[in-house]
Amino acid sequence: MANSFYERPILNSPYAPPSLYHPLDDTGQPIEGAPIDGRRPSKFIVPVPASRKKAAAAQASLDLETYTENAKINEIRRYVDTWRAIPNPADWGVTPTTQRLLEHWRRPKDEWAGPRPFFCQIEAVETMIWLTEVAPRRAATRGLLDQIAKDNEEANPALFRLAMKMATGSGKTTVMAMLIAWQAINAARKETKDFSRAFLIVAPGITIKDRLRVLQPSEPGNYYDSREIVPPEMLPEIRRAEIVITNYHTFQHRETLAMPKAARSFLQGNDPEPIRTIETDAQMLERACEKLLRFERVNVINDEAHHCYRHKVGGDAEGALTGDEKKEAEQNEEAARLWINGIEALDRQLKKGKRSGGVRAVYDLSATPFFLRGSGYQEGTLFPWVVSDFSLMDAIESGIVKLPRVPVTDNLVQTDTVVYRDLWKHIGKSMPKSTASANKLSPFDLNPLLLTALNSLYSHYQGEFERWQKAGIGVPPVFIVVCQNTAISKLVFEWIAGFERGDADAGERAAFHAGHLELFRNYDEHGGRLPRPRTLLIDSRQLEAGEALDKGFKEAASVEIEQFKRELAAREGAGAVKGDINESDLLREVMNTVGRPGRLGEQIRCVVSVSMLTEGWDTNTVTHILGVRAFGTQLLCEQVVGRGLRRQSYELNKEGLFDVEYADIMGIPFDFARSPQKVDAKPPKPVTRVHAIAERADLEIRFPRVSGYRRELPSERLNAQFDEDSRLVITPEDIGPTSVTMEGIVGAGVTITPEVLSQLRPSEISFNLAKHLLYTHFRDEDGFPKQHLFPQIQRLARRWIDEGYLVTKGVPIGAILYQEQLARAAEKIDIACTRGGGGHVVAVLDPYNPNGSTRHVNFITSKDCWKTGAQPPRSQISHVVKDSSWEVALAQALEGHDRVLAYAKNQALGFEIPYLDGGAMRRYLPDFLVRLDTGAEPLNLVLEMKGQRDESDKAKAQTARELWVPGVNALGGYGRWAFAEFTDPYTTEDEFKTLVTKLIDGAAA
After folding, report:
1. pTM higher than 0.85, yes or no?
2. Would you tell me how many other CB atoms lie within 10 Å of the CB of residue 918?
3. For residues 951-961, average pLDDT
4. Which end of the chain has the smaller Cβ count within 10 Å, N or C?
């Protein structure tokens, strides 16, 4: 049987729970066999296909030693799955605010204008919500929280941490925005111990800190607005969030008074206590956390949280370390201690004098939430407070990330190992350890194995480069080389991109070489430097810490730094580089804009990195990675490989899945796909910014945000006025098959039907329907059912049945007693009672944000759009998103009608009509809002385009017509409103003209 993983790696939609997974063996490697139904259990795995050479055991040190299920994560996942499947939002057990957010995030794809969240992003936030709002209130699940608290007590005694394991490229920033929205809006509406609108977001470096600016509600292009993370009516609350974004280095206590040693000694005199010139915790927090100290409770969000932990007390699981391993362990330990100390200091400061103050919770996000070398734990041990998991294999099977490929065989017969899979093992001893030793070498002295690896991977890159050019992609693919130290990176950089010795400006170039890899050369064929360098040399660690550049590195990259300064001056003017520009800031800007059109790094083709490329480097154009350093664990492998896993295209194919994209890897012992696959390069789909145009402010349409309805009957004498929308049709599609034929291999067959439902008498049915109506729609102010109305209600229920408003097709009449059908029937009869009882309906407005407007529209979309632009203009919004040809036809009819004063497509407006469907409160989004000139007071019209109508569509229209419109008109202050529905796209224009004439005649009368 063929190995399905290599033939069809992507099995699932990124927007739905995984329903298939590939089989793996006991070591986590893909094996032959068809995909398995269901979802892969969370296991502690990093799948690594075995080398085809027989001595694969030589690399066994990189394989994880355990492959066991994460029982706690899987248990929580099952609870969250069950909770998510509850159909009625009122039964979710969360606050109304949380309920609104969940409905917003889970809404159908047609209601999203731009990119919608992946399932894994929603699941991560759902898990936090469930653990906070649902689990503590259920006896069966409180034990899980006790276990998480115990895990934290052992590792983080002062803090309550919850970790989300999310594969690289799965969108952790979006998850942060959703977490902030959930906490901040709840706290803004009613602050309790479970919620806070204060957030400290801690990143491992300046690169990620800069990228996370999209989490600031005041930032242009923030995710809450541009990515529709927050419903429009909740945007005012999210703007009340207090958010501080920093990198953990700011927790370092700084000198408050710098002085030489002699002066310090003089001032101290004979005092045995040294003079304190270092910040106290309070001073450090005042600088690092700013306004957060005014709050009683603060949420902390750690990005790339595997850098933050407390060293295990008495732990020494790794034994004695030497050389580079010891140095790496010391660096990890120093960073982790500084990070965790800062958060604990904040917790202590907030608790001073406050009964319930402190860090409310710490939300950790990481693709690799494992203890690092030097932690006292065995390297690669999973953080015990991880509560959700979307692994790299899950992400690959959902198509969210590229598929990494590395060598699994070669033609070198002298060795049983695959050389280019773990290159450092074969070249490490021959590589320079320091700048001094590198100065004795030239780029031509590099190990031949390294040069052959560079040439081989570059040859493949050439083909990819040509495919991108033919496809019209405006930026080049990117090739990354990750080096062990500055000495190696300088030599590799010069071998690739070229070098010159001596003072070139003075005409004294003692030595010159244009570079060996033509597409990566920084020199032209005449020896002159290219105006825009193609290859970049970067020291990741120094840039992330915000440190001044190392002298050796600064000298190695001096020409490139000056070149980029000139480019910046040419692009943004001389003022952009006035004075002595910070080189590290400049290089960080270049690195962060690799592959982005119109930015400094747009044409970079190759990046040679000293140390490891930082986490959070968001370039999605990386196609090739070469490792020229030691990789002791799969954790490190996954972190480096992750730099190349971000997808370029997010367009679904005809099957509703992503197409496979690949990243080719050498020198890093990590693999998923062994067989080469050809992938056609595709240009990214253009996006459109849809926004309210300030110059069209007179076309603004204001509308009420309705949260419910209040019915006011003049008396308790009930009467019902039924119409066509009062009719309920029940078919087998609603309740399931009602006739099943059973047969054996031989003998007679038998047909099974639910005869018991056919035997119910009309009086029995009307009694149960009336009882449901009484308990759901006829209660007094104290919530008690109005029992004295029951005879009238039963009479109306019997009349509804007898007059033929209950229609059963292929199902017995007793199917009406199914709970969902009872609820639908009750809703129809209740609306008929309101219509026939002589009373009126008053709309209940959202208590937090009662008003909506077209002037707040601002989002991006990759869908096709139709630009508004009638003369004179009739829409404040720049475009109409083409969700269907019907809607475009209606928009064109509106643009061309002289009675239309203004109109807007209802996309990202926040205009919704609440309605009941099967007993559950839903939200209906009509297609258009129109303001009409009817000769008197303008009329606001809610328009819907609909083809075939099901019971849900009937409930929407009936609610809009019978409850929303009269309820809003009764309020006053929002003008006159009406509702209309069109069902034929081919007669839309004529129908609209007829409707306008009818409305004008009605206004005149």
Report:
1. no
2. 19
3. 87
4. C
